[in-house]
Each structure stands twice: as structure tokens, then as C-alpha cells.
């Protein structure tokens, strides 16, 4: 019943380097009306728009070189090289998709409401309708566990054991009419947007700790309702109209004077750019207080997903500068020490797993010569560190072991 979560980097910083987002902002538009539903992506930094398909989407996920698109008829799998359909997983109304390693987790309106498919798109297992009789409102996958958002509780599934391990009740702060609506991953916790069917505008924010499974209320606000998925960006959770947000560090809620627009739709951990949608069909990003040029799309944006370029995830690992940063002890059990070359002025540190997926991006002290990284709760395996500096990038690798490993 152990739930692993990302290690915390033990440093802070007052300096960061501006860099344009580099990657693809996938999006799909709302169904109904004219024009018809549209799926595509914006390529950054070029800010060019590309069409994928004219199909009504419910959700999407990206795993490696495949785009998984949940449609009314099933999950269509596209090759991200040319966006030609490769296969379709036959499941009716796949509402939420999430990657679990090489596998795909799906919740659907049809029974069974929870399914897991392997890399060959074969069903690994599903939850019996007696265990999960209704469709989840949302899903979050962390480590080897899936958190299923139900109307007044969260069901936790052990993906290895292929069974449920806990149900956590989420007692809403308003006494009646509340239901859980959105689930947002924010590091150590999942945050829960609670809406109310009471006639009056009101909403709440709750959270559940991934490790302890303790749920509590963050705030309750009268006079407002949130109808779009909140976006976690560093220590803030953006909701309502921009710049409305909950500050996790300061435990404070800021409500913007803006009415309805723009909306925060996605965040890039690499560049720290925040993507906004204005009036539904205009997309910009905000970076270091400056707005980018506007990209106009067809229809009204319903959902967005930013995937950084492969140059920031896979191809860089063979760079000749890998040896310039030293780490010890390696393998590491608890705390990893990183020795930084003189005058490197590191601004940002990124952590990658063995499959070269970026797990975390943190700001660093540009004048630090030594960094401590708490790896206690990382699963055993190989990891990579990428250090961004004004003169380029530095790299290092390390192995995490458990108590019973010999080295």
C-alpha cells in the first residue's frame, strides 16, 4: 500500500532564465454549433497551427510517439509523426485518459467504468461494476496508483495488484448539494474542485495527500463557481478567470477582477510558460510577465495538453557534457549530493526517470556549488538530472536503491 511520490529538491532561487516554450500544445474544441469539433496542435516556438482530425474528443493523452484520443466511439491512436490513425480501442465514451508507464488508464461512461490497457492495446484488467458502479468525474495516476474522483469520495486503485486499496470520503464544507468535479495533480497532493447544485454560486477546494490519504478543506468561496479544469503551475493553482489562483505556499486565494476571460488552460514545466485562452478561440502564453503573440484556432478551446519537444526529454541524454556534474553517493539511498562546477550559474534543475520522462522542474540558486536532493521516497531505479545554465546545459545520472539492496 506504499504510494511513491516525487522527491523534493532542497533549495530555492531568486533567478530564472527566460526561454520560449518548445513543443506542442494539443487541443480540441467544444462540440456543437459551427464550426464542427476540431482537434489539432500549436507548434512552439513557431506558433504554427496544425490540424489532426475533425472529431469530437472527450480527452487525450500522449505516450511516446502515440497520441491517444478519447472519442464517442472509442480511443483512436495516432502516430505523432504524421497523425495518421493507427488503431482504435473499442470502448464507448472514454471520458478520461491517463498514462501509466507504457500502459493506458481509461475511465468511461459505459461499464466497466475503469480499464487498463497494455502497450499492445490489450485489456489488462478492469474494475467490476459492483466495486465501481458509476463513472468517475476525474482520474489521477501517480506511481502505481490511480485516484478516481467520485461525487463525494476518492477511490484508490493499486495498479500492480489490480484491485482497490482505499476509499477516502471528502466531507464538503457546505452542508448539502456538493459534488467533486475536477481533480488536479499538484505534487504531493491532489486538489479537488467541489461545486454545489444549490442554485446559488459557491465552490470549494479540497485536497488529498498522496502518501497519507488525508483529505482536508483548503477554502470555501461564496459568489463564484468554477467550470473549467484548474491548472497547477509551480506553487499556484489557477482557476476561474486569469489571474485567479490559489497560492499553495502562502495558503491564500486571489480572485481576479476579470469576468470570464482569459482562462488558464495549461502550463509548461520546462519554460514555465502559462497558456491562456481568450474568448475560446485565441491562445497566448505568459512568460516572465510578457504575453506572446496570439494564435487563433477554429472553434472554442475545450481542453489543452502541452508536450515538450523530445530535445528536452530524450535526445539530450547523450550530450558530451554529462560528466561535468558529479553526484554522490551513487547509488543513493536517502540524500543525493550534487557538486556544481564553478561559475555554472544553474537556474533550473529537471529530474527525469529511466524512460526520459520529465518528473519535476525546480528553480535553483544560481550561485550554489552544492545541492542536496532528498531521494528517500523515489522508487528504485535509474534517474537523470538536467541543469540549465546561461551557457547551456549540464547533466548527471544516478541510481536509487532501497534498504535491502547491496552496493
Describe this structure in words.
The chain is mostly beta strands and 407 residues long. 0% of the residues lie in helices and 49% in strands. Strands 24, 25, 26, 27 and 28 form a five-stranded antiparallel sheet that branches. A four-stranded antiparallel sheet has the order 3-2-1-29, with no helix packed on it. Strand 5 and strand 6 form a beta hairpin. It is globular. The two termini are 26 Å apart. The N terminus is likely disordered.
Oligomer: single chain
Q: On the 0-100 scale, what is the average pLDDT?
A: 85
N→C terminal distance = 26 Å
Structural class: mainly beta
Largest sheet: 5 strands, antiparallel
Radius of gyration: 21 Å
Query: What low-confidence regions span 5 or more consecutive residues with pLDDT below 50?
Result: 1-18, 311-323
Number of strands: 36
What's this model, at a glance?
This protein is mainly β.
Draw up the topology in text:
Blueprint: E1 23-29, E2 39-44, E3 48-53, E4 57-63, E5 66-71, E6 75-79, E7 85-89, E8 94-100, E9 103-108, E10 114-117, E11 123-126, E12 138-142, E13 145-149, E14 153-158, E15 163-169, E16 178-186, E17 189-196, E18 202-209, E19 215-222, E20 231-233, E21 236-238, E22 245-247, E23 252-254, E24 263-267, E25 274-278, E26 282-287, E27 290-291, E28 295-296, E29 301-308, E30 326-328, E31 335-339, E32 348-352, E33 358-363, E34 370-374, E35 381-389, E36 392-400
Antiparallel strand pairs: 1-2, 1-29, 2-3, 4-5, 5-6, 6-7, 8-9, 9-10, 10-11, 12-13, 13-14, 14-15, 16-17, 17-18, 18-19, 20-21, 21-22, 22-23, 24-25, 25-26, 26-27, 26-28, 30-31, 31-34, 32-33, 32-35, 35-36
Amino acid at each position: 500500500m506504499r504510494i511513491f511520490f516525487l522527491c523534493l529538491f532542497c533549495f530555492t532561487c531568486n533567478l530564472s532564465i527566460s526561454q520560449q516554450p518548445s513543443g506542442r500544445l494539443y487541443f480540441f474544441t467544444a462540440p456543437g454549433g459551427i464550426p464542427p469539433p476540431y482537434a489539432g496542435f500549436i507548434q512552439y516556438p513557431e506558433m504554427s497551427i496544425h490540424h489532426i482530425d475533425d472529431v469530437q474528443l472527450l480527452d487525450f493523452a500522449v505516450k511516446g510517439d502515440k497520441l491517444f484520443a478519447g472519442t464517442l466511439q472509442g480511443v483512436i491512436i495516432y502516430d505523432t509523426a504524421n497523425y495518421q490513425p493507427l488503431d482504435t480501442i473499442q470502448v464507448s465514451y472514454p471520458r478520461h485518459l491517463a498514462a501509466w508507464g507504457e500502459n493506458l488508464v481509461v475511465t468511461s461512461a459505459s461499464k466497466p467504468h475503469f480499464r487498463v490497457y497494455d502497450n499492445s492495446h490489450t485489456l489488462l484488467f478492469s474494475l467490476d461494476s459492483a466495486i465501481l458502479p458509476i463513472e468517475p468525474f476525474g482520474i489521477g495516476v501517480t506511481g502505481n496508483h490511480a485516484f478516481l474522483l467520485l461525487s463525494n469520495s476518492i477511490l484508490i486503485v493499486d495498479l500492480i495488484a489490480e484491485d482497490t486499496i482505499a476509499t477516502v470520503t471528502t466531507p464538503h464544507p457546505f452542508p448539502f448539494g456538493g459534488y467533486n468535479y475536477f481533480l488536479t495533480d499538484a505534487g504531493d497532493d491532489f486538489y479537488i474542485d467541489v461545486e454545489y447544485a444549490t442554485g446559488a454560486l459557491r465552490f470549494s477546494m479540497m485536497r488529498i495527500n498522496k502518501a497519507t490519504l488525508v483529505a482536508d478543506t483548503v477554502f470555501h468561496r461564496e459568489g463564484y463557481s468554477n467550470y473549467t479544469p484548474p491548472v497547477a503551475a509551480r506553487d499556484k493553482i489557477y482557476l476561474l478567470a486569469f489571474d485567479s489562483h490559489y497560492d499553495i505556499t502562502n495558503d491564500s486565494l486571489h480572485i481576479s477582477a476579470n469576468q470570464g476571460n482569459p482562462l488558464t488552460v495549461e502550463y509548461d514545466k520546462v519554460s514555465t510558460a502559462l497558456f491562456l485562452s481568450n474568448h475560446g478561440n485565441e491562445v497566448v502564453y505568459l512568460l516572465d510577465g510578457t504575453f506572446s503573440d496570439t494564435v487563433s484556432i477554429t472553434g472554442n478551446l475545450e481542453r489543452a495538453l502541452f508536450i515538450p519537444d523530445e530535445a528536452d526529454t530524450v535526445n539530450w541524454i547523450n550530450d558530451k557534457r554529462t560528466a561535468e556534474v558529479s553526484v554522490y553517493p551513487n547509488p543513493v539511498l536517502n540524500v543525493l549530493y550534487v557538486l556544481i562546477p564553478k561559475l555554472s550559474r544553474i537556474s533550473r534543475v529537471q529530474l527525469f526517470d529511466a524512460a526520459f520522462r520529465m518528473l519535476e522542474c525546480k528553480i535553483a540558486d544560481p550561485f550554489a556549488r552544492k545541492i542536496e536532493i532528498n531521494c528517500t521516497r523515489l522508487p528504485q531505479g535509474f534517474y537523470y538530472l538536467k541543469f540549465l545554465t546561461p551557457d547551456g546545459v549540464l547533466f548527471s545520472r544516478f541510481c536509487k536503491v532501497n534498504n535491502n539492496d547491496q552496493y
